[in-house]
Design a protein that fits this description.
about 260 residues, single chain, about 55% helix, TATA-Binding Protein, alpha+beta, 10 strands
Amino acid sequence: MYKVLSYQISDSIDIKSAKANFISELYYSDSDELFYKTGDNKYVYIFKYGVVCFLNFEDKAIADTLNSLSAYTINFFEDKIHEVFEIETNCNEINFGYSKIEIPNPDIESIRLIMLNVAQSVALDYYAEQTKIMLQDTNKYTFRLGNTGKLGIRGNQLKRYIGRTLNLKNRIAKNLYIFDSPDVTWENESLNKLDNGLKKTFDLHSRHKDIQEDLEIIKENLELFRDIMNHRKDTVLEWIVILLILIEVLDILVREILS
């Protein structure tokens, strides 16, 4: 029985710096990922989007590794979203279960693929949590608008919300490989079957779709808020122009009367 533990430790990890300072046997790397073999059936998978995944690590070793990686992170989290997944080996065939997979004698590529999908699942949990917070924030303003007719939000604050929404959408699009299978699965039927089964087990497509739909709702609400604020500004400008014209007319009348 192998045990996979995956943690969202930060918004992002500097892969280049981590690679330069992490001492272990590097099996695979690119600009977004580092996959290390640290012992017999022991692996660490580090992802640019702030996730670190472990196979067969004790709690202390995990804590020490995360602490050492914290120096290469942006916005290191004290409270970390995590997920546990078990791999049952020496089975007759591949079977997918709840937080578990049965697989006959997995090789290193199978293990890497399993750890990748667990990491993606944790990242989805994190993005779903961030999206939920933003949706709750925008719902407060829509509720206030419906009850009082006022937004109660300033222009700069609205711009920050819009920026956060677009930033989160861009990070999800850039960091999640849910719709793109890894290169190793393209010409290997068994790995392709494993990858597809894991995506279904973790319900990655559906969860990704839910996040995208919530982000679209947030985006539409913020655009509505922006249009309301722009209309308000236009109305104020119109009244200013009217007032200036009125003052000019009064000034002309006064001059005519006094002349």
